[in-house]
Amino acid sequence: MSESYTVEKIQVLKGLRAVRKRPGMYIGGTGPEGLHQLVWEILDNSVDEALNGYCDLIDVALLADGGISVADHGRGIPVEIHPATGKNTVETIFCNLHAGGKFDENAYKVAGGLHGVGGAVVNALSERMVVEVSRNGFLHRQEYRRGKPSGPLEKIIPAAGTGTKVTFWPDPTIFEEHRFSQDLIRERLEIKAFLIAGLTIRLTIESEGSAETFVYPEGLTDFLKKLAEGKTMIDAQPFHFRHDNDLRLEVAMVWTEETSSKILTFVNSIPTPSGGTHETAFRNAVTRAIRTYIEKRNGLPKGIKGISGEDVREGLLAVVSVYLHGNVEFQGQTKERFNSNVGHLVEPPLRNALETWLHQNPTQAAALAGRVVLSAQARTASRAARDEVSRKSATRRLTLPGKLADCSSQSRDETELFIVEGDSAGGSSKQARDRKFQAILPIRGKILNVEQASAEKMKANKEIQSLVQSIGTGMGKAFDYARLRYGKIVINCDADVDGHHIATLLLTFFYRYLPDLVRKGHVYLAMPPLYRITIGSGKKAAVRYVFSDTDKERLLKGKNGKEVEIQRFKGLGEMDAATLKTTTMNPETRTMLRVSIDDEGKTDEIFDTLMGKDVRKRFSFIKEHAREVRDLDI
Ligand code: 0RA
Question: Looking at residue 124, what is its pLDDT?
Fold first, then answer.
C-alpha cells in the first residue's frame, strides 16, 4: 500500500466521521429539514445536468422501504480511475468530502454551502446508498454503507445511453424522523420543473403505486399562473423577462386585485426564502421603474406625496430566478439567504426592461399605474385618519405602564415597540435605540404560558397587562385595531434556549389574543446574534455576527489558519450599545423576521401540541418556524 494511498484513506475516514458527528454543520440539523436536505442535495446534482442542457428527464421514486431514488438521463458520472485518489470517479465523488467542486466542471455547479460535497455528505448520513451509472456501453453499480464502499464499482450489464441513479436510505440512528414527506418532495419537484422550462420530472410513490409528472413548457409563466389561481389579475399578459449576460436572470410577474404580495426568489434553482441581494435589487428595480413611469406620465395626483415600495408591491406576484457561474455562497445552514453582490447585475437590466414594457403596453401600464396610485391614496388617507386620533392623547398616556420607554414620534407607521426580557436588556436597548421612533418595554421573567392559563388568570398577569397597555389595542373582544400605537412590534429575546422559549411564549400570546396584529404583519422577531467573530487582526480584521452555534462552526470551517477571535453574547444585556444597534435595532443594518401565518389550521395545531411540553421541543419549533417566515425586513 503506497504512502499517499494510506494518507488518502485516513482523510476519507476523518471526513466521514466529521459529517456523522456533526450533521448539523452540513445539512442544518437532524430534524425534518435536515432529512429533506439530503434529497435536495442529490436532486440538485441531477438538476445541474438539466441546467447545463445534458438531460431533460429526472425520475424520483419514494420507495416503500423508506429509501428514495433520483435518476437522471444526463452524461453519467465518469467511471474511470481518478488520478487524485486512485479510485473510480463515482467513489471519489461519493466518499470524498473534498472531491465535489474539483471534479465537476458543470458551468452552473452549485452546492450551495456544501461546495460540491453534497453527494458525500448524503452518503455519510445514509445507512445504505447505491449509485448506478450508465456510461461507456455498460450499467455500473457501487454500494455503500454509512459512507463506506461495500465493494468495488461493478460492470453489471451492457446498457445503451447515459445517466446516473442515486438511491439512499437515511441513517435512522442519525435522523429523528426518517420518513420523507410526500408533500415537501412534490412541492420541491414541481418548483424545479417550473424553474427549468421543458424539464420533465416524474415522481413515483411506490407504496401507493402512483406516479405524477411535472413538466412546464412555459416555465416561470406557468409558475405565475399557478400562484395566481383563484385571484383576479389586473393584466392578462404577465411581464416576463430573460437576460443572459454576466449572470442569467429570469423574472415573471403580474399584479392581482389582492392586497398582499408574494415574491419568490431563487439562486441556481435553489429557493432563497430569506431573500438577499437579488431580491433587494428586484424590489428596487420594480419600485423605481413604476414610480418614474407614473411621475413622468401624469405627475402625482393631488394629496399623495410619493409612491412607496409597498404601494408598488400591493398585489404583486413575482418569481425571480438568477443563475450564477461557479460556487455560490449562501447564508444559513439550509442556504436560505443569498449574499453575493449581484445587485448591479440585476437592477439596471430589469429596470430598463420594465420601463420599456410599460411604454410598449400602455393599456396594462395604465391599469397598473391606477392600482398603484390607489394604494398610495389609501395609505395616505388611513394615515391621516389615524393621526386625527392622536396616539398620545393625555388620557391614554396616563394608562401607559411606567416601565415603557416610549418614543417621541406621532406617526404610528414609523414607530417600533421592542419587547425585551429583563431590566439589563432594557437598559442596553434604551442606549441603542433611536428614541424618535423606537420604544422599549422590558418584561420580567417568563410571562405566563398562555396556552395553559385561563383567560382570567392571564388578564390579571402584570406582564401581559403592561404589554397590552403599551400596544394600545386592548385584546380579545375589546380589540380595537385603530388604537394600535406602533407600526412594528418586535420581540427581541436572547439568542439562547431561554430566549427562544420566551419568544415562543410571546408569539403564542400574539397568535391567541391579538391575531389581527400577526395577520396584518405588525409582529416581528428580532435576530440578535449569538457570536461576534473577528477574523484576522489589525486593520484587515473582518467582523461577522452569527445567530447560532451551527452558523459559527460553518463560518469557522472555512477559516483554518487565520487568526480568529470569538465572543459569545450571553444576552442582550451584555452586548454593548453599538453592537446591539447595528445587529438588531438600526433599520439600515439589522435583520429581522416578519411573522406571518401561512396556514392557520396548521399553526393552531402546532401551538396546541407544542406548548406545555419540554423546552427542547419548543426551541426547535421557534427555530424552524421562524425560519419559514417569508418576509424579511432589511
Ligand atoms: C462529473 C463529471 C461529469 C458529470 C458528472 C460529474 C455528473 C454528476 C452527476 C450527479 C448526478 N447526476 C450526474 N450526472 C453527471 C462530466 C462527464 C462528461 O464530461 O461526460
Answer: 97
Of 39, 42, 45, 117, the residue with max ligand 1 atoms within 8 A of its CB, to mutate for a pocket test, comes to 45
**Ligand 1 pocket by Cβ (under 6 Å):** 45-46, 49, 72, 74-75, 77-78, 103-104, 164
Domains of the chain with CATH codes: 17-214 (3.30.565.10), 220-384 (3.30.230.10), 412-528+594-628 (3.40.50.670)
Q: Does residue 57 contact residue 202 with C-beta atoms inside 8 Å?
A: yes
Look at residue 197 in the predicted model and tell me its pLDDT.
95
Identity of the amino acid at 274: S
Which SS3 state, helix, strand or coil, does residue 125 take?
coil
Sheet holding 592-594, edge to edge: 438-443, 416-421, 488-492, 523-526, 592-594, 632-633
Q: How confident is the model at residue 509 (pLDDT cuts 50, 70, 90)?
A: confident
| Three-state SS sequence of 402-446 | CCCECCCCCCHHHCEEEEEECHHHHHHHHHHCCCCCEEEEEECCC
Report the C-alpha gap between 184 and 194 in whole angstroms: 15
Q: Is the pLDDT of residue 626 over 50?
A: no
CA distances in angstroms from 473 to 75, 407, 484, 524, 549, listed in the order given: 62, 17, 5, 17, 38
Put simply, whether the predicted model's pTM sits higher than 0.70 gets the answer no
The β-bridge partners of 266 are 271, 321
How far apart, in whole angstroms, are the C-alpha atoms of residue 370 and residue 380?
Answer: 15
CA 307/CA 286 separation, integer angstroms: 12
Residues tagged active-site:
421, 494, 496, 498
Residue 255 confidence (pLDDT) above 50: yes
Show the CA angle centred on residue 634, arms to residues 190 and 502, nearest 5°. Answer: 90
